[in-house]
Methionine--tRNA ligase (Nonomuraea wenchangensis), 469 residues
Amino acid sequence: MYITTTIPYVNARPHLGHALELVQADVLARHHRRRGEPVRFQTGTDDNSLKNVLAAEAEGVPVRELVDRNAAAFEGLRGPLELSFDGFIRTSGHPGHRAGVERIWRAVGHDLYRRHYDGLYCVGCEQFYPAGPCPDGHGEPLQAVSEENWFFRLSRYQDALAELIRGGRLRIEPAARRNEVLAFVEAGLADISVSRSAARARGWGIPVPDDPGQVVYVWWDALANYVTALEGGDYERWWVRERRKAHLMGKGVIRFHAVYWPAMLLSAGLPLPTDILVHDYLTVDGRKISKSAGGAVDPVALVAAYGSDAVRWWLLREVPRVGDADFTEARLIARYDEDLANGLGNLVNRVVTMVCRFLDGHVPEGEPPVGVSGAVHEALEDFDFRRAAAAVWTLVEEANRYVDREQPWKQAGPARERTLGGLVAACRELAVQLEPFLPTAAARVAAAVGGDRLGPPAPLYRRLSGVAH
RNA sequence: GGGGCGGUAGCUCAGCCGGUCAGAGCAUCGGACUCAUAAUCCGUGGGUCGUGGGUUCAAGUCCCACCCGCCCUACCA
């Protein structure tokens, strides 16, 4: 399975919203790897957005400097969030990217033509609007642009796209998003501008082949990353031969991924992605996350304060499949205490304690009294991380119930050994099931219940909130 | 303007093709237990399922209108 995230433009440091998408992609990647499937998990940054240029100007630093610094911050999420991506592409630095963009451009040449265009351009959105103001409310007024650009005959692919989506060849999840895209396509597709004058782009970006006065539209440039990130044999392996190719993205950029991008590929005669997986947005304390407004939560700071398990668990367990989710530190703490400390941590702790106290640490043979069946996989196939996380957690809940039901402290001899052996086995199984979601927790649990003889108990997670006495 | 998505217990949310669907978790309250991180387990209370109509033997669950929040899209139905 080839799994990609969108590549954010790097006009600022990453916020919690980026973490959501990366963690979701990471869970998919780890899950499918664990099933023994070949997986390539690809992410990166869009360095060529005009917004990056403007951010650099506002800050008074060279574009290159700002882009390098912020891109490094995005790549640096790998450690704190425990991301397992295999590839990280930067559109300004990746050796094959520019050449790949040019190659696609030429392959699509039969659908490109020059046209004079008068329009109002919103830099914030990187797109044209027929009339102002920008619906997203980006502060700056729309730029009146009058220039000759390259256009792509998107209109030509309307029927083909509709058919691909209707037939499920191009799967869009959740279904509501699929309907949304279908409605958009069936309403009629107009050709789109795919270049801009190099002057207006401040010279930043990839020049149009054989037309140095023009720069390739940043979206064209960015979308191409999904194939340009794959060089040499990797392209053949992951874009041509791979059966499942999934793009993860936020709801704001569906049109680019589910319409423009497939149309580009159709025109170029290249294979298409198979899954478009769309998540909604996060708000923080009830407010929209705004990179510029500072209300953004720094995922790295959050991890530093609460640990990667806490952050990943909140993102996976609390964010619904449909609808924006509101992040608050209180909710994260509540989830941490309830699930990680009281649920998982306490379970492992009580099991280890009993094995040490009653059996001198020796682990008896045992079959786990609980299991998860296919619920996790089914939920992930539906792109429902919350349901998947809940499915894994049934192991914790059932194991805790099992302890209370069997009451091993009252048991003796073989009965007690059978119970405790089963519980240790259950914890080991839990470690395995947990790995795609919480790698650190999985490792901690595995360490606590590994081997023939268990060491002394040590709490895995301390409660964060004060406990009333 | 068009299209779509939400509006279900105090909070966060499940409820697919209509008939144990009125639910789960948290919070509250009561009980049990003591292996454990004052944790765990069991049980209780609480909702006119946004509003108003309609279809049906039967509707959160389908249809229409409206209200609130949000998203996409379009100044050409």
Q: What stands out?
A: The mean pLDDT of chain A is 88. The longest helix of chain A spans residues 329-359. Chain A has 18 helices and 16 strands. Chain A has two domains: 2-296, 307-449.
